[in-house]
């Protein structure tokens, strides 16, 4: 009896042996569909629709400004405090939404995960893209306010703002992959992430200046504080949007670019660790869901 001809399987990929986040680039069409779906369904059935992207940050700014600026008097200690406050809020909001949504992305898409094979990294990355789209209206408001305040940034400061966005997207993606994969098995990971997001808001110089922290902490602990990628991103946004609207006497952190370079390294390490943990656990996703 003759042996059957061997079948060429070189064009097929065994599930679970892909290239991780790099496979997302091969599924760009599906990524666009997921992002489009997330954007269209976010305010589905809402009377205000996309207006909520403006109303929510405006309400958040108003509350913080009244409490921290008026009641606690920080508007007298920080020049152009409204611009300072809002330029920090938009950065933290981007991190909170991207990281929080990415953590829940696998669980929220359990139907697709259990039925078909596709790079699971698509889901957290799509949620990070969706958060970035929702960040754009807030950035538009910030730019409009800065222009009204006489904003004239340099190219270096604008490059710093772009770097800040990259830092936030990288760290949010890495942490989203890490906690998103753990959350499939241990749902209380979402509660831990909520605590992290709460700390991210209050441990970054958004409601206060970095000098207040510097005056209270020993030098080595202050250096660790400044190495937080979210803190570095906030200060880059302050440098790009707030500082050009001041008289020029406002203080900025020393070695901000070195701090930002360290933040990029930390964000990349978080992305690599998140990807490794994600790949280690994704084989159990369908079973645990």
Structure description:
- Residues 48-281 form the ABC transmembrane type-2 domain.
- Its main location: membrane.
- It is a multi-pass membrane protein.
- It is found in: Cell inner membrane; Cell membrane.
- This is Transport permease protein.
- With 289 residues, the protein is mainly alpha-helical.
- It has one domain (56-288).
- Helix content is 71%, strand content 0%.
- It has helices at residues 28-42, 52-71, 74-77, 81-108, 110-115, 122-148, 155-185, 189-202, 210-216, 219-226, 229-242, 256-281, 285-288.
Short précis:
With 289 residues, this protein is mostly helical. It has 13 helices and no strands.
Work out the helicity level: over 70%
Euclidean distance between termini CA atoms = 47 Å
Beta content comes to: under 5%
The succession of helices and strands, N to C, reads HHHHHHHHHHHHH
Protein name: Transport permease protein
Membrane topology: Multi-pass membrane protein
Family: Belongs to the ABC-2 integral membrane protein family.
Transmembrane segments: 84-107, 128-152, 158-180, 192-213, 256-278
Keywords, separated by commas or semicolons:
289 residues; mainly alpha; 13 helices; 71% helix; globular
What's the SSE blueprint?
Blueprint: H1 28-42, H2 52-71, H3 74-77, H4 81-108, H5 110-115, H6 122-148, H7 155-185, H8 189-202, H9 210-216, H10 219-226, H11 229-242, H12 256-281, H13 285-288
């Amino acid at each position: 009896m003759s042996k059957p001809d061997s079948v060429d399987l070189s064009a097929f990929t065994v599930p679970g042996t892909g290239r991780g986040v790099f496979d997302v680039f091969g599924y760009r069409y599906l990524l666009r569909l997921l992002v489009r779906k997330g954007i269209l369904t976010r305010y589905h059935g809402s009377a205000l629709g996309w207006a909520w992207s403006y109303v929510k940050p405006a309400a958040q700014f108003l509350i913080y400004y009244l409490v921290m600026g008026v009641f606690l008097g920080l508007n007298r200690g920080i020049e152009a405090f409204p611009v300072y406050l809002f330029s920090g809020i938009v950065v933290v909001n981007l991190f909170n939404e991207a990281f929080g949504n990415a953590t829940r992305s696998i669980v929220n898409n359990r139907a697709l995960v259990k039925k078909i094979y596709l790079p699971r990294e698509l889901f957290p990355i799509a949620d990070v893209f969706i958060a970035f789209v929702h960040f754009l209206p807030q950035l538009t408001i910030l730019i409009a306010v800065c222009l009204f305040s006489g904003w004239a940034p340099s190219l270096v400061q604008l490059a710093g703002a772009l770097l800040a966005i990259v830092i936030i997207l990288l760290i949010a993606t890495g942490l989203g992959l890490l906690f998103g994969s753990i959350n499939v098995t241990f749902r209380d990971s979402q509660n831990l992430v909520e605590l992290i997001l709460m700390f991210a808001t209050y441990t970054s110089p958004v409601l206060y200046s970095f000098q207040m922290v510097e005056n209270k902490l020993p030098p080595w602990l202050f250096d660790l504080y400044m190495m937080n990628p979210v803190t570095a991103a906030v200060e880059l946004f302050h440098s790009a949007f707030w500082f050009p609207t001041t008289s020029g006497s406002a203080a900025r952190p020393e070695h901000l670019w070195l701090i930002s370079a360290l933040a990029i390294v930390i964000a990349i390490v978080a992305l690599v660790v998140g990807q490794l943990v994600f790949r280690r656990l994704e084989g159990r996703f369908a079973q645990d869901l």
